[in-house]
Amino acid sequence: MYDYAIRFEKDAAPGLAIFCRDLPELNSYGDDQEHAIREALDAIETTLSLYVDQRRAIPEATPAQEGEHVIHLPAVTVAKIALWNEMMKRGMRKADLCRALGVHQAQGDRLVDFLHTSKMEQLEAALKALETSIRVSPADPDWIDMPHGGAQAGFYIERLVDAYRAAGVTEMPIGKTKEGLSSVKDYSLDYLLRTRYARQPNTMQAVDAVLDQITATGRFIRSSMKDPVTGREVESLALA
């Protein structure tokens, strides 16, 4: 319903410009396609905040067209959209929402602030107070979510397959470590995840929650191998 499709256009300057048919106010930029996709969620949420500032209903997403890339919004963002659109439908202002919920102005404002983090439980309570609700569709099974990578951090499983092939390997050490990026082995899965798909490279990304999603796709298996530098037996992730 709110998974917006974006397109990339080359500009005179190096990199790619980002546009969205459903949100014509959106205008962002990326050094390359992967960087542009990582920047897209922030661009969408910034654009949604303009709709709130202008007291306009937020449009639903239309089906992606050829060459476009779909951005899957977090459930919290979808809940905020649903809450805001219900308020617009009823002609409610933020002050009206605060009175309906019995909360302070600042607390109520955050519930429809797309640039502020809110708890899903608070949004569900607000929707219930307005006698409405949302249904979040099951996640795309090919999308790997990185809970410690920052907002909308993650990747499609085929991108990881391609990364292995580009590196000329079928198996990588997982390289679990809580150290900063400078201490991570540059031939490990954790290094690849930190540098390609995460906005928080100094936080470990090859955690079990991510590895479980990867192996659930059937494209990879957890195994063990000899570290190519130290020769020690280490945990690894191999192409299935």
Written account of the structure:
The chain has 240 residues and is an alpha+beta fold. It folds into three domains: 5-70, Double Stranded RNA Binding Domain, CATH 3.30.160; 75-129; 143-239, no CATH class. It is 37% helix and 16% strand. It has eight helices and nine strands. It has helices at 33-53, 75-90, 94-101, 105-110, 120-129, 157-167, 189-196, 208-216; strands at 5-10, 16-20, 28-30, 69-70, 143-145, 154-156, 171-173, 220-226, 233-239. A four-stranded antiparallel sheet has the order 3-2-1-4, with helices on one face. Strands 7-9-8 form a three-stranded antiparallel sheet, covered by helices on one side. Strand 8 (220-226) and strand 9 form a beta hairpin. It starts with a strand and ends with a strand. The mean pLDDT is 88.
Poorly predicted runs of 5 or more residues: none
Number of domains: 3
How many β-strand stretches? 9
Percent helix, as a range, is 25-40%
Give the averaged pLDDT, no decimals: 88
Beta percentage is: 15-25%
Nearest-angstrom radius of gyration?
A: 21 Å
Order of secondary-structure elements: EEEHEHHHHEEHEHHEE
Shape: elongated
Q: State the major sheet.
A: 4 strands, antiparallel
* Structural class assignment: alpha+beta
Helix count?
8
Distance between the termini: 34 Å
Biggest sheet strand line-up: 3-2-1-4
